[in-house]
Amino acid sequence: MAFSGSQAPYLNPAVPFSGTIQGGLQDGLQITVNGTVLSSSGSRFAVDFQTGFSGDDIAFHFNPRFEDGGYAVCNTRQNGSWGPEERKMHLPLRKGMPFDLCFLVQSSDFKVMVNGSLFVQYFHRVPFHRVDTISVNGSVQLSYISFQPPGVRPANRAPITQKVIHTVQSTLGQMFSTPAFPPVMYPHPAYPMPFVTTIPGGLYPSKSIILSGTVLPSAQRCGSCVTRTASRWPWMVSTCLNITIA
């Protein structure tokens, strides 16, 4: 199946939720599930990567449970029958608290990051390319489910792409990522100007865009903008450089 790198995120989907993964799972695809664990109902929830909407064939069942100290069950379901469970203890999730789950698809396994830290590795029991649907059910409220295509990698060699966290200083335009979470870097360090590209997955809450470059000595002005169509400019940053360069 051909991967589509422009799939928009699912925003504030109702739970239970089932949605299509455009192009299916691909090696290097990262899927982020962001939401809040409900404190008033239930003691577990699940994220399933499955074939179709029936639930009979689930390649990866990730099932956090808030009982017996908290743990997660990982499993695979084929033709309606579950395989042997794999349990991961010391669940870093709490009822009533927000969470961020990042699932990285690799050729041999799924890697799951919970709130920025690697939590579990689950080796494939069935070919992952059969998966075309993600489902979420249980005691959670979802903010978004986003898709980051293969080819986007962090600046370091961490086992999974990490979120960009930045602090905006009082001076306009000063933005820095924290040392623990380096910014996501695209494959090529320099691009010809003017530069135009698509934003994989579009814009959604918590997504950060960092522009890094060098101001040329002859420059008087530079700017960036995000737009939906050529005639609409909902966001623009422009910097005037009326300065003397020694």
From TrEMBL:
Keyword match Transmembrane helix: no
InterPro entries to which the protein is assigned, alphabetical: ConA-like_dom_sf, Galectin-like, Galectin_CRD
Pfam families the record matches: Gal-bind_lectin (PF00337)
Gene Ontology CC annotation, any one: cytosol
Keyword tags: Lectin
GO process terms (BP): negative regulation of CD4-positive, alpha-beta T cell proliferation; negative regulation of type II interferon production; positive regulation of gene expression
CDD domains in the record: GLECT
Molecular functions (GO terms): carbohydrate binding; galactoside binding
Keyword Nucleus attached: no
SMART domains: Gal-bind_lectin, GLECT
Designated name of the protein: Galectin
Origin species: Piliocolobus tephrosceles
